[in-house]
Amino acid sequence: MDEHKKYPNKLGIIGWLGGGRWGIERYLYTLHRITGLGILLYFCLHIFVTSSRLFGMNAWEKWMGFFKSPIFKMGEFLVFVGFAFHALNGIRLILIEFGFAVGKAEEPVYPYKSSLNTQRPLMVIVMVVAAVLIVAGGYQFLGFVH
Amino acid sequence: MAKKTQKETDIIFYIHRFNPDVDSKPYTQKYTIRVEPGMTVLDGLHLIKETQDATLSYRFSCRMGVCGSCGMLLNGRPSLACNTQILDITMKNLTVAPLPNFNIVKDLVPELTPLFEKHISIHPYVIQNKTDEMLDPTGEFYQSPEELTKYLQFSYCIKCGLCMAACPTLATDSEYLGPQPMLQSYRYSIDTRDDGFDKRKKVVGNTHGVFRCHYAGECSNVCPKGVDPARAIQLMKRELVLDYLKIKKHRSTSFIMGKPEGVKRRPEIPKAPPFTVEQK
Ligand code: SF4
Ligand code: FES
């Protein structure tokens, strides 16, 4: 059988985004990765910009002025949104990865309930807290823009 | 989920086809069949094969959700074709594709070899330190109902590979063990008859092991047997962390219950027939 060619059928990164009948936790997984990368990107930019102070006051002020534009304010707000989500969802994941909130093994009885159901209240709490933080943060940030 | 209808309906099947001898990549072929209430996707495929296109390939065996052969991607969700009624998931169109994250052998037939190889790699059997007892048993290992419950759920796995197809980590990292093998590593390690945790932790604790799981949870959503791989994986992580911190509770292996003493064989129970093959 092995001499036949086979077609590789990996879902790949596209598979993270959707295109299936998936549950909400799988989308949170994707969002967690995206926000993680976003925060990393911000971190690099941040190091780069703050290091401009090394090249004198002028360089520093030039960059600071550049980042005053509303576009970057919006960008900063997005970083905050990403951070709020990533931090809170991260706490949920840490708890779960230490075996909390997933419940104990039980006899599967149809219709099956899984550890996803067990951890869902935690997920909802965490997302509500993230949303409250984001709204509160948005209030602040938008206050700056106007 | 679409509302259940009691009427016969025409359903259009969009089936992914791929013939390794002719095609360079998969393409979609359209078939329309009349679907009665209660018909499963596997019934639909049989009907197409019998009445419209005999070249269609798919894998099945038990047609009752036991053998784990007929895993497919049905309207974007890994499911068993024999376990899914058509009118439960659609009233119009049904896309049938082979399970993703596995190579396609032909049409709807995935190559499940990586699943089995990874499964074997975690030593999916009871490993005993008492080798003498394993070779020449003197009794049964005692296990309480509570001890049984700890792994029973995870032992219902039929190795259908749906969880592997649903896993987003496996979608980008082919060396990742995947839900099914990691679940099995927990199932055996938590078994009180087993002493194999130290052996398994080397496999599941590495970079492509349990700590790559970030609880997308889709494996547990799609599992047709309610096995809940995501739960087992998190519990395995806990065991590994406790072990790493050297605070994992030592568990002794089940004791051996010898043969019952002081009881006589009831006369109405006949003797076992003689061996038909020579005993070593
Ligand atoms: S854990 Fe469930 S979905 Fe995964 S192989 Fe076993 S039975 Fe199939
Ligand atoms: S044919 Fe056996 S599980 Fe579907």
Please tell me about this protein's structure.
- The complex is a heterodimer of chains A (146) and B (280).
- Chain A is mainly alpha-helical and 146 residues long.
- Chain A has a single domain, classed as 3 helical TM bundles of succinate and fumarate reductases.
- Helices cover 70% and strands 0% of the residues of chain A.
- Chain A has helices at 12-17, 24-50, 57-66, 70-97, 115-145.
- The longest helix of chain A is centred in the last third of the chain and has 31 residues, at 115-145.
- The radius of gyration of chain A is 22 Å and the shape is extended.
- In chain A, 19% of the residues are buried.
- Helix content of chain B is 29%, strand content 15%.
- Chain B contains ten helices and nine strands.
- The radius of gyration of chain B is 23 Å and the shape is globular.
- At the A-B interface, helix 1, helix 2, helix 4 and helix 5 of A face helix 5, helix 9 and helix 10 of B.
- Iron/sulfur cluster (SF4) binds at residues 68, 157-163, 179-180, 183, 222-223, 225, 227, 229 of chain B.
Overview features:
heterodimer; A: 146 residues; mainly alpha; 3 helical TM bundles of succinate and fumarate reductases; 5 helices; 0% strand; extended; B: 280 residues; alpha+beta; Ubiquitin-like (UB roll); Fumarate Reductase Iron-sulfur Protein, Chain B, domain 2; 5-stranded mixed beta sheet; two-stranded antiparallel sheet; 29% helix; binds iron/sulfur cluster; binds FE2/S2 (inorganic) cluster
Present the secondary structure layout.
The complex is a heterodimer of chains A (146) and B (280).
Chain A: H1 12-17, H2 24-50, H3 57-66, H4 70-97, H5 115-145
Helix pairs in contact in A: 2-4, 4-5
Chain B: E1 9-17, E2 27-35, H1 41-51, E3 71-74, E4 77-80, H2 86-89, E5 93-98, E6 104-106, E7 109-110, H3 113-121, H4 131-135, E8 140-141, H5 145-152, H6 162-166, H7 179-189, H8 197-204, H9 218-222, H10 229-244, E9 256-257
Parallel strand pairs in B: 1-5
Antiparallel strand pairs in B: 1-2, 3-4, 3-5, 6-7, 8-9
